[in-house]
Amino acid sequence: MDQIARTPKQIGDAIRRQRRKLGLNQTGVGDKTKLRQATISAVESGALGTQLGTLCDILAALDLEFVIRPRTKAKPAEIEDIF
């Protein structure tokens, strides 16, 4: 199922949901990406300043990808309610 994310927090929440769905912990994702567990935690919490390459590595490790498309009219709070 497609997930819409417009904020760093929403991106982090989507990553966390997928990680848990795959039965991985943050250290496991770190092992797959060569990133520290603290980095995975920061991304999942929506910390600002995450490098795009780091985010792409995490998405790849979780078998996720970016999809760029025109923005829908839903407000960020309404998008969070979907999940």
Notes on the structure:
The chain contains five helices and no strands. The mean pLDDT is 91. It has a single domain (8-82), classed as Orthogonal Bundle (434 Repressor (Amino-terminal Domain)). 57% of the residues lie in helices and 0% in strands. The radius of gyration is 13 Å and the shape is globular. By secondary structure, it is an all-alpha fold. The N and C termini lie close together (11 Å).
The low-pLDDT segments are: none
Query: What is the number of independent domains?
Result: 1
Secondary-structure element series = HHHHH
SS element count, helices: 5
CATH architecture: Orthogonal Bundle
Protein name: Transcriptional regulator
Domain HTH cro/C1-type: 15-69
Pfam family, one: HTH_3
Organism: Nitrobacter vulgaris
Kindly summarize this structure in a few lines.
With 83 residues, this protein is mostly helical. The protein contains five helices and no strands. It starts with 7 loop residues before the first helix and ends with a helix.
